[in-house]
Amino acid sequence: MSNRSLIIVPVDSSQETEPTVQYAVSIAKERDADVHAVQVVRRGGTLWLAPENETSLRARLRALGQAAEREGVFVRIVTLRGTPERIIPAYAQLNAASLLVVARHYGSSRLWRTSAIASRLSRTSPVPVLVVPARLDAAAPLSLNHVVAAVNFTVASALALRAAADLSKRHGARLTLLHAMTAPEHMVFSGGEAAHFVRGLPADAKVLSEWLKRKAMALGHRDAEPVVVTGDAPLGIIETATSTAADLIVMGVAPRTRIDEVVFGSTLRAVLRRATQPVLVLPVVAGAYEWIDGVPDDTARILSIANGMTRRAA
């Protein structure tokens, strides 16, 4: 087995495949890693791709591989049998991969481009997943100037904050820590209850901003900018990343079932659907549990708000 680290890229016949592989190759060059471009075959033996598309894809990948080898990166084309959400994470774990790079619309129909498979891979992968948008600059994926980390009171967000702080320090990038406050699900916006909720928002936002700042400083990042928004969490993440010209969004996520996502919604799916920059997703097995030392002191009201949004957490 090679001592070089491994980056895995799921591929299909879409136009997103080449820039995604090139993006992964650029990262591999920086990390002194190899790249495995992974095709998936259905259990019955039928390729996800039509035969002519399969031939064309392999030719395109071989051309990319030859160009990558001239830059010192080995690209291997791998065909696996199964479904992407199961077989790709298994392959990543068996081969001790360090990163999974996937196009946002990977595996979806040409007529209906969705981030569904990329989202599910982000939750089942044993390694971090970098989801890249359809339009990206494959030539300079590592020129990070600004990183936005989505943070709440979960273990998953604690690891996301740690990863974002590490990345921003490594690349000399600005770091923004974003927390979205939403009303608890039981809240009825009428009368005195609504007025009390609205009056307390500025004070809550100040407490949370100070808490975010302390967390960043504990990780050695004294210049992090805390941002607290109210309302829809995915919209807050997207608007903050857009307004600050962020190069990367970092999120931690916990395992969830499809039914759970349909019933309660998914912040991750919503962000992947609308983000114009890559999203680094950290799958965390115990991610849904409370961040043990993450709760600000004397914030029972904020905890009530947080408990109201846990079901829609990433």
Short descriptors:
10-stranded mixed beta sheet, 10 strands, disordered C terminus, globular, alpha/beta, 2 domains, Rossmann fold, 314 residues
Tell me the series of helices and strands, N- to C-terminal: EHEHEHEHEEHEHEHEHHEH
Our measurement of the CA-to-CA distance between the termini, rounded to an integer number of angstroms, reads 35 Å
What is the alpha-carbon Rg in Å?
A: 20 Å
Shape: globular
The unreliable regions are: 303-312
Largest beta sheet: what is the strand line-up? 3-2-1-4-5-10-9-6-7-8
Total domain units: 2
The assigned structural class equals alpha/beta
Strand content: 15-25%
Name the CATH homologous superfamily of the largest domain: HUPs
CATH class of the largest domain: Alpha Beta
CATH topology of the largest domain: Rossmann fold
| Count of β-strands | 10
If you average the pLDDT, what whole number results?
82
Please tally the helical runs, counting DSSP H or I stretches of 4 or more residues.
Answer: 10
Overall helicity: 40-55%
**Largest sheet at a glance?**
10 strands, mixed
State the CATH architecture of the largest domain.
3-Layer(aba) Sandwich
